[in-house]
């Protein structure tokens, strides 16, 4: 008489796998936040489960992370590059962030990005922004250049870069987005400099079109000297 054992391997449901993967990414997003900060965001964080339930600053849609919002949160660095690609909005402002900027690794579904009034460093590569991005508020950091306005997302209508550490004689632009084709009353706005009263830290000499026949109006670059826009 022969006896044996039968082993049956069952893969976990796809939904469980998706939650586990999302949780792993969110854990990386919060990895450098202090224990005190984590406890202030979620009292039940030690129990595990989904980050879509019981977490301050994390907003989900249909079980997927959709929006991130933290204001004046001084508990360490977040890691936006780790966020799930389902994320459409990141708003982390006035929170003493000092991480290095990596635009290439931002969520691909992102439409709104506000990282203003921090101390974020590194070169800001505007040629690798998420393809659906509409607004990018990056002012008041320590971002450096060179920057190029030659491959911006077609959907972009607002880019704020004033009060950074961009030192550049000429900023070239070409094939700028045309948001007015989709939103008739929404012109493209690219802010490279603040007013004199704002103590601008960027040092940009001129803004110049690669193709003069495609020169943008001076109003595209508000507060930048009109005589230096070509």
Sequence-ordered SSE layout with sheet pairings:
Blueprint: H1 14-29, E1 32-33, H2 35-41, E2 58-61, E3 64-71, E4 76-77, E5 89-93, E6 112-114, E7 121-123, E8 135-137, E9 142-144, E10 158-160, E11 167-173, E12 189-191, E13 203-209
Parallel strand pairs: 3-5, 5-6, 6-8, 7-9, 8-10, 10-12, 11-13
Antiparallel strand pairs: 1-4, 2-3
Describe the structure.
The longest helix is centred in the first third of the chain and has 16 residues, at 14-29. The chain has a seven-stranded mixed sheet with strand order 2-3-5-6-8-10-12, with no helix packed on it. It has a single domain (14-228), classed as Leucine-rich repeat, LRR (right-handed beta-alpha superhelix) (Alpha-Beta Horseshoe). Helix content is 10%, strand content 23%. The radius of gyration is 22 Å and the shape is elongated. It has 230 residues and is of the alpha/beta class. The chain contains two helices and 13 strands, in the order αβαββββββββββββ.
């Amino acid at each position: 008489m022969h006896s044996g054992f039968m082993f049956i391997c069952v893969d976990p449901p796809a939904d469980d796998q998706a939650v586990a993967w999302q949780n792993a990414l969110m854990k990386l997003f919060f990895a450098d936040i202090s224990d005190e900060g984590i406890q202030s965001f979620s009292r039940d964080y030690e129990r595990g489960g989904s980050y879509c339930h019981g977490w301050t600053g994390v907003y989900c849609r249909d079980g997927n992370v959709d929006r991130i919002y933290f204001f004046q949160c001084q508990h360490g660095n977040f890691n936006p590059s780790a966020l799930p690609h389902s994320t459409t909005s990141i708003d982390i402002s006035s929170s003493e962030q000092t991480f290095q900027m990596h635009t290439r690794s931002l969520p691909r579904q992102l439409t709104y990005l506000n990282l203003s009034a921090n101390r974020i460093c590194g070169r800001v590569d505007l040629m690798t922004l998420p393809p659906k991005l509409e607004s990018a508020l990056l002012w008041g950091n320590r971002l450096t250049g060179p920057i190029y306005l030659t491959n911006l997302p077609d959907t972009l209508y607002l880019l704020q870069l004033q009060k950074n550490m961009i030192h550049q004689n000429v900023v070239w632009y070409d094939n700028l987005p045309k948001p007015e084709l989709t939103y008739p009353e929404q012109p493209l706005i690219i802010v490279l400099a603040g007013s004199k009263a704002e103590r601008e830290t960027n040092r940009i000499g001129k803004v110049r079109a690669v193709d003069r026949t495609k020169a943008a109006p001076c109003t595209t670059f508000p507060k930048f000297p009109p005589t230096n826009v070509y």
